[in-house]
Amino acid sequence: MATASSTNSWLKAQRKGDLQTLAEKLNLKIPNGKLKSEIEATLDSYLADNAATLSSRSDLAGYYNSRSKALGSPLKRDSQSSRESIGEDVEKTLKVARRKASKAAEDMVNEVETGSTALVQTPGRTLSQQVARIPLPATPADVARAVDNSTVAVRNHVSSLYRDSGVGDTTVAARDCISSVHALVLIVAATELFFIRPAVLPSVYAFTVPASVNIVTRADWPVYLPDMFTLVSKFFWSPALVWFFTSFIVPTFAGFFFNLGATAPHSASGTGARTRARAAVQGPEYRVDPLTFSIAKALVSFLVYGQGVTFYGLLPETSIARLNGAVYGGYQGILTGAAITGIASFYDAILKK
Questions:
Q1: C-alpha–C-alpha distance, residues 197 and 195, integer Å
Q2: Residue 46's pLDDT is what?
Q3: pLDDT of residue 266
Q4: Residue 73's pLDDT is what?
Q5: What is the 3-state composition of the chain as percent helix, strand, coil, each rounded to the nearest 5?
Q6: Fewer Cβ in 10 A, N or C end of the chain?
Q7: InterPro entries attached here (predicted)?
Q8: Residue 134, domain member (yes or no)
């Protein structure tokens, strides 16, 4: 190749980008990072070697005109360019080889020196850092601790959901509402009404739920509702009034007038005139004594449903028979309910003494 000083003047006048474009047209591969002078030398050598085939191209006319001016005869020009090309190739190859060998040797020396210095100065720290990068299996204590933490987190989450839902407050309120003698009396009465209702207010066919809608049994479901027209007939009112008379009117009358709690002395932790005055102002705790109520209900139910007493024809015998057959267990079931409320009343009175 020609040196930078002997490169063709036409090539020197071209820009580096134009030279790279020219090399691509000639299918001449130019490595990236080459200097402009190196590209000029490569193109000069290639064009000189292939002058026989490329001198006819119009885009290279400037190069060959400049070269013919610089050189005398074509033979001299060819021999000189060949010698220059060979000399430049050898020189450049040697320079690149020496540069790469020198750089590789320097890098190797630097790596050896750096590793040796680090190993001599801090061998323990390097070893500990390498060991720290190795993932070790969890110990049984770590596993147990993780399980405990997860259990505590789940328990706290469930407790938070339970507290925010208000189920606890609702449960306590429901317990306070039904934890009384009056609530127990109403529950017993509601149980009796549940069994009496079909006898005094019978159900009639209303409509049918089709099988396509019934997702439970997948079959037609006939629906029966209470016959509300019965409310305006004697068929309903006669047994309804008999039950109301025996289960509420007579027991309430007896519990109000035979209220043992109204005349009993009120005991308190602090005795004296102030305590007795407060008790007198507040009055009895129950206006209707629940114990007397239960005893009266049991007595009247036994006489009416068990012995057939009509109170001089006031209570129809047909209504008594219908009620006696409708209540679960007959009149014995009514007596059982009265016994339950009576025992609860007695227990409540003991707790409040």
A1: 6
A2: 84
A3: 53
A4: 46
A5: 70, 5, 25
A6: C
A7: Put_GTT3 (IPR038872)
A8: no
| Side chain identity, residue 224 | Y
What per-residue confidence (pLDDT) applies to 185? 92
Q: Which two tokens stand for residue 84?
A: 């220059």
Asked if 59 and 177 sit in the same domain, the reply is no
Say if residues 200 and 240 touch (Cβ distance below 8 Å): yes
Phi-psi map region of 187: left, alpha, beta (phi>0 left; psi -120 to 50 alpha): alpha
277 part of a folded domain: yes
The residues, ordered by sequence, that sit 6+ positions from 235 with a Cβ below 8 Å of its Cβ are: 200
Convert 146-156 to b/e letters by CB count within 10 Å (16 or more is b).
eeeeeeeeeee
Q: Does one domain contain both 60 and 173?
A: no
Query: Rounded to whole angstroms, how far apart are CA atoms 41 and 84?
Result: 10
Q: What is the DSSP string of 194-212?
A: HHHHHHHS-EEEEEEE-TT
- Per-residue pLDDT, 306: 92
Domain stops at, among 87, 121, 155: 121
Residue 114: give the domain boundaries: 9-121
Ranges in the chain, pLDDT < 70: 1-6, 71-138, 264-285
Number of domains in the chain: 2
Select from 170, 200, 173, 183 the least CA-distant residue to 325.
200
Number of Cα atoms under 13 Å in the Cβ half of residue 144: 3
Assess whether 112 and 173 both reside in one domain: no
| Cα 345 to Cα 353: distance, rounded to the nearest angstrom | 13
What does the chain come to in residues? 353
Nearest residue to 289 (alpha-carbon basis) of 335, 344, 243: 344
116 and 180 inside one domain: no
Q: Is residue 180 part of a domain?
A: yes
pTM: 0.50
**pLDDT attached to residue 89:** 62
In a domain, 3, yes or no: no
* Per-residue tokens: 277: 């005055």
- DSSP letter string, 281-316: HH--S-SS-HHHHHHHHHHHHIIIIIT---TTTTS-
